[in-house]
Amino acid sequence: MSNEIPTIIEELYLGLYPGPDPKQWPEYLRDDPVQAHGLLSFYRGLQLGVRLCTVCLGGTKGFPFRGSCRAKRD
User: Fold this and answer.
1) Could you tell me the mean pLDDT of each successive run of 10 residues in the chain, 74 residues long?
2) What is the pTM of this model?
3) What CA–CA distance (Å, rounded) separates 66 from 1?
4) Per-domain residue ranges for the chain?
5) CA distance 41 to 8
């Protein structure tokens, strides 16, 4: 597996999570910005994955654009 990150992945990442924000980090990680930022990014990625999976399976529950994807597809 290559270590090269595709441009689209970087664009999505920067669009969804623009940068480190210590106010969003757990208190116990405030002194470790690398781990805090990594953990929060991983968590946001999991949230996005679950939302995308939900939509792909035909649901819209929990997705912020309730109904909009389904309306375009039908």
Assistant:
1) 80 75 88 90 85 78 50 42
2) 0.58
3) 36
4) 33-74
5) 16
